[in-house]
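Closing statement on the (R)-mevalonate sub-project.
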Amino acid sequence: MTAEPHAPPPTNPCAGPAAARTGSGRAHAKVILLGEHAVVYGAPALALPVPGLSCTASAVLSAQPGHGLTAYRYRDAAGDAAASDVGSQAPKALRHLVKTLLNRSCPGEVLAVDLALDNGIPMGRGLGSSAACARATVNALDDLLQLGLCATDVFDLVQLAEGQTHGRSSGIDAWATGSTRPVLMTGGRVSAPTVGAPAWVVVADSGEIGSTKEAVALVRETFHREPARRADFLSRSATLTATALEALDSGRLELLGRQLTANHRLLFSLGLSTPALDRLVEVSLGHGALGAKLSGGGMGGCVIALAGTSQTAFRLATELTRQGARGTWTASIDERGADD
Ligand code: MEV
């Protein structure tokens, strides 16, 4: 006689001992190759994931009474544990996310979650750190609560958190921090560009912290004061991105590089660069980069430099560090078709 198999443990946290389970989630950094700021107004922009820089989250149902986030541990890129164990000290956007997901999983139930974030993505550098933290948190809660969220659900939740952190945002960070390949965003819709030849992008941190929220507000005020500048900026940025897409598709990396450098000048003209960023762009162009620019919100943060070979990327990273970059990372643009 064979024994009856044991019933599987309940997977619904409202119904059973999910407290024993740990949900885990991950997301990575991103850089904007072209089109930042313009994308907020519907113009096209191209983002590249930086998988070597990531944020991981783990979530458990809390043993303590409460509702929402009861305990929060945050460790930053330098390995410093910045926040205490009190959930109320977590960013408002993350607290809101946890409550939203608990309510979706178990409406009417009083459940609490302990969340730990290990964020290897420096904050305030235009690398999508806040979006990656939100995405890792959503993925961890999806895993813990067995919600079965689809890609659009995850995007909507990350975008909800981004709205609370940055105000108005295009959504490009929310997508790119979960994508394994370049992301083209046009008029709020995303697609994957074709890539005709491999390339490397060196990311160099100026060490200056820039606030995306402030940078987006600065641009909005400028456009409000001078509407003609808005039209001019958007049209120039869209042309650069369109030419860059053709160059990427056909593997013409010199042409792609020139679009990056021209985009830097355009962002500079809006007051979004700093002397440190300009210097890192000059260092890049003087040491073999095919093009270079600030990336993300600007007013601090990172510069990206395009290299045609991995050896050039390595030499660029070495030189940028020697000339003051606080950190460098390299991401590759892999040769692929849109349907690969
Ligand atoms: C930030 O990575 C890019 C910006 O265009 C803001 C946004 O798109 O939400 C500056």
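The beta strands are 23-34, 45-61, 68-75, 112-119, 183-186, 189-191, 199-205, 291-295, 302-307, 327-333. With this model delivered, the sub-project is considered complete and its resources will be redirected to Aim 3.
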